[in-house]
Amino acid sequence: MLQRLSIQNFVLIEELSIEFYPHFSVITGETGAGKSIILGAIALLMGQRADSGTLLPGAERCIIEAQFTDLDTAVARMLEEEDIDADEGECIVRREITAKGKSRAFINDTPASLQLLKRLSEYLIDIHSQHQNLLLGDAQFQLSTLDLYRGEDLLVSRYQDLYETYKSKAEELNKLRQSMEALRKEEDYLRFQYDQLEEADLEEGELQELVDEEKQLAHAQEIKEALQRATSALSDEEQGALPALTFALKALESIRNYHTSAEEWYDRLSSIRIDVQDLTSTLEEEASSVTFSPKRLARVEERLDLIRGLLHKHSLQDVSELILLKERLSEELDKIQSSDEDLARLEAEEATCYTALLEAGAELSASRQEAARAIEEQLISSLHELGMPHVRFHIHIDSLQHPTRMGLDHVTFLFSANRDIAPEPVADIASGGEVSRLMLALKALIADKRSLPTIIFDEIDTGVSGETAERIAKILRRMGQSMQVMAVTHLPQIAAAGEDHFYIYKEHGEASTRSHLKHLTATERIDEIARMQSGSTLTEVTRAAAQALLSSFAED
Asked: Which parts of 151-205 fold into alpha helices (H)?
């Protein structure tokens, strides 16, 4: 519950610190006294964004702090997950806003994000305002209300887990289909490229070998003639090197027995003659093997043109790179072929997930149908109590064509306050007062279903008066028996039903106006309710009427 609220330098509030109590409390005051300021301060603690315009004029910093006690286990679990200490089962939330517009939030003195404040506030406090009355016509709000009544169970969480699994599988399948579509568009081109490289039957090092062969073939006649001239120069009987070496050997042989060095020279020259003779034979063989083949040259040039064309086409430098490209193309083509199997597998998995999702959704829908009938019965009974004897209320649940994260259902609240008018959607038919009573009845119905310790009603009495106001007051007081309930009201009947009464008022100084909130004593409370009943003129009669109204609720 909200135990304490402290406000410094917020709008018209310079400094305020107030203790709140369990059960049902009311807040009253003149129009414009600052009730909305109090609610605005609490809204900031619930994660609403703020700016420097919320500061009291001239202030450097605004501080709003609330102390919550009797925490639900969900709050303790959330604080533990965020590594925030929950000292003695209490939670202190603080917002600080500077004149420069900077804002900081703290939970138990630990810095916190606005997102965390919003999550936490769902378990701490609910402010019901006229804005929420407008939500009553919203299909999502109606569905959420239905599930709140059902209470926390495994059906929604199980369905949503299956929904996330299905969406993930569907997304994976969609990506594969898109990838396959893109690949199939390229398949013919990829196949053409692969077949071209496969047909080329490339080999490592082939390019250099062909270049060398092309040179030899293109200059075959020159090579043959040069080899022949070299052979002739070595073997010619008259001027060749071999005859000259033979003559020299004979000359050295004639002096081998007389000159010491002649033996060595003879051996060296003999070795040279053998080498020259061997080289001459090699040159002769090579000359005879060199032939000019225009056909072979044409084939080599054609092969070179093919390889060079492939290199240019694919912007590569070497045959080895073309071979690697062919391997990559083969892998892409294999991937296209195997993707059909992957597609079939994923389609089967998606279908299985979808079937499980529909089964869980049908189970959830059945539970909602059961809850809807129970809500209808109890809500009609509550609305009878609130002065709507001929009310008809029906929760219509349509099946959606496609599953959503919230299930397979579209919920519509159908309402009619008159016996002769068929129920229609709430947003289309209900008046302001009827919407207020309907929302109150719903809030009362689900109050025990939620682990929410505090609810604040901001002018739930809009459009009602007299006996209906007394009935609203009794419902609020009854709700206060199981939770902390506060109501901002202008009606004396509702004010008298509160077990505690807070009064907000303005004080006008020479240069400023300030709002204040005080807890009324029994005497002050009588005067306030008398003022609400009869205006600013207080008499013994008006006080007696106020006392009687207070006593009527005290006896309940």
From this structure: 154-200
- For the chain, the straight-line distance linking the first and the last C-alpha, in angstroms and rounded, comes to 24
d(CA 13, CA 20): 18
Q: Other C-beta atoms within 10 Å of 11: how many?
A: 20
Q: d(Cα 208, Cα 191) in Å, to the nearest integer?
A: 28
Which tens digit of pLDDT belongs to each residue from 502-556? 999 888 877 677 888 999 999 999 999 999 998 878 889 999 999 999 998 876 6
Residues 6+ apart with CB under 8 A from 299: none
- The distance of Cα 463 from the centroid of its chain, to the nearest Å, equals 42
Longest CA span, the chain = 169
| Partners of residue 504 on adjacent β-strands | 29, 517
Q: Which helix (H) or strand (E) holds 515?
A: strand 513-519
Per DSSP, what are the bridge partners of residue 457?
128, 487
CB 235 within 8 A of CB 276: no
> Is the C-alpha dihedral spanning 387, 131, 488, 432 positive or negative?
negative
Residues whose CB falls within 8 Å of the CB of residue 468, separated by 6 or more in sequence, listed in order: 386, 387, 433, 437
DSSP at 520: P
Structure tokens at 18: 């107030």
User: Whats the size of the chain, residue-wise?
Assistant: 556
d(CA 33, CA 380): 36
CA distance 123 to 445: 17
Q: How is residue 439 written in tokens?
A: 């929302």
What pairs with residue 291 in β-bridges?
Answer: none
CA distance 188 to 194: 10
Mean pLDDT, rounded, for 453-473 = 82
Count of C-beta atoms within a 10 Å radius of residue 393? 22
Contact at 8 Å (CB) between 518 and 34? Answer: no
Tell me which of 274 and 464 has the higher pLDDT.
274
Contact 449, 144 (CB under 8 A): no
Rounded Cα distance between 460 and 514, Å, is 26
Amino acid (one-letter) located at 229: R
41, 94 in Cβ contact below 8 A?
no
Tens of pLDDT, residue by residue over 102-149, are 899 999 989 999 999 998 888 888 888 766 666 677 888 889 888 888
Strand partners, 519: 502
Say which DSSP state 396 is in: E
Taking only the tens place, the pLDDT of each residue in 475-497 is: 899 888 888 999 999 899 999 99
Q: Beta strands 110-112 and 103-107: pairing type? A: antiparallel
